[in-house]
Amino acid sequence: MSLSRVHTLSRQKIFYHFRITTLLPRNLVHHSIYNERSPPLQFNKGSHFHHSTFENRHWFSTIRAHDDVSNDIKDSCVETSGTQLSGKPVEFSKVDARLLPTVLLIGRPNVGKSALFNRLIRRREALVYNTPNDHVTRDIREGIAKLGDLRFKVLDSAGLEAEASSGSVLERTAEMTANVLRMSNLALFLIDARDGLQPMDLDVGKWLRKHAPGIKIIMVMNKAESLDDGFGSVDAASGEAQILGFGDPIPLSAETGLGMNDLYEVLRPLLEEHMLKNINESVDESNEDCESSEQEDESKLPLQLAFVGRPNVGKSTLLNAILQEDRVLVGPEAGLTRDSVRVEFQYEGRTIYMVDTAGWLQRTKSEKGPGSLSVVQSKKNLMRAHVVALVLDGEEVSKTRKSMTHDEVVIARRSIEEGRGLVIIVNKMDLLKDKLYDRVVKAVPEEIQTIIPQVAGIPVVFVSALEGKGRIDVMEEVIQTYKKWCLRLSTARLNRWLCKVMSRHSWKDLASQPKVKYFTQVKARPPTFVAFVSGKTRLSDTDLRFLTRSLKEDFDMGGIPVRILQRVVPKKGTTGSSSSSSSNSNSNSKSKKNGGKFVAGEASDKRILNVVKD
């Protein structure tokens, strides 16, 4: 008989009894396995936890033996009966995000913190790249974790090196991690199961005892999918990890999702205990505030703002100046930001999500690594933004006598093509003297209008992020641009405006003048209009540009892209694209009732549309 067969038979003779929760209502699939000889599930009444025992526990489960578990069951029943409100568990999905507990992911570099962060939030937001000698994550990323029916704030931190040199990037990231750790409720200490316990893990453990004496630390042994060999590799690795003094580790795999149920069972009682202590006092006040804010102004929807630009122009410093806190990592090093950091911010009763993106560089196809991934992530955040704030370096503008480089022109034009509002921010103005300051303030808006003629009236703000000057002006211009971007005009008002505009336009030949029946807005964000034209003559590109310019001047829509479409109204008696000749009488009678107007989308042919993007 082979050696592997002997080990398999010996394992089948061992019975493990442990408890599990009912995971079907929570849309979870437990990774435990059992055979047909296992006893049926035995449920325990009097508590919302359902306990059961069966054989052949899967190796990923970290529950102890039967006697210890039975005692834990009794203790948990007593605790839950005393802490639960009317025997019902906490519904985390109905809790306001501001009241959710905070869990910090911490550990040495390259242990899978970002991979676990992406697994918990169910999106690939954090950059993940295998670089043992480099730190991919440098800033604190925040997201809402969705683990079964649990909801909590999860923070992804940079790789921690306790013995970093003074003034280095690693020391600054460690200080940011320490500040965030003080405001967290729980911390997941990650180690690498494949590498085993390293000296750097011991240093992180000492660092945690020093900076987090009153915070619950949970050990997580990541990358444990390769240890299921049947020879006790998981038990050996778990025993080695207990040297750190934070209890039994939870073996899991952030890449494959194995072991997430064990993490769920450990986190649930801790998170419920926290919620039951704090939610009863603050949930009523938060609900009243939310209701009152909705009644005051329902149009104040969350605004997505993205700071983009070349490396080392002061995007992160400007974000910290607006927030008035050291939220993201800053320094003189170029390309310091890699992950796009998304921060929620309240300004004048409006929720604003600000995104600090990595420096935008045109990279070659052969270049690979975290830098290329960060540029791709910056482009995605530009697509998601409502308003794009393009940050320029005022000192470099004064030296080169050129407002925008090629990369910055590409960013601005892509923002306009995607229909986003655009605000230009010239930073580092504190480095310019009086005369040079005045020259830059006068020349930059004129040159930008020449470089980007598609959009007239782009707002330009001159700031000094290091000194905090101009941050209020930036937010005011962003809010005004967003309001213009969401503008809606009534059809009656547009038709009155159309009569005035068509009369003052200089037509070459009045006989060949296009006959615009009416003008209407079909959508906002960005504003899009449709001109319904009858007859053979269509609006030329020059006519459409004239209408676009007149719209921006008369309705104060500068700085945002405006789109105008034109559609042809078929003559009476002709067959439309969506109506047959047998229904002409019905369509004629409807057209008389509607004053001869053509209803968009019923008899229009989209193949003859002319689109002008401005």
Query: How many strands, what sense, and barrel or not for the largest sheet?
Result: 6 strands, mixed
Fraction of residues in β-strands: 15-25%
Overall geometry comes to: elongated
State the total count of DSSP E strands: 16
Give the N-terminus to C-terminus distance in angstroms: 78 Å
Please compute the radius of gyration using only Cα atoms: 31 Å
pLDDT < 50 stretches: 1-87, 290-299, 575-614
Q: Which strand order spans the largest sheet, edge to edge or round the barrel?
A: 2-3-1-4-5-6
Task: Figure out the total of helices.
Answer: 16
**Residues in helix, %:** 25-40%
Mean pLDDT: 76
Alpha-beta content class: alpha/beta
Write a short abstract of this structure:
The protein is α/β, with parallel strands linked by helices. It is built from 16 helices and 16 strands.
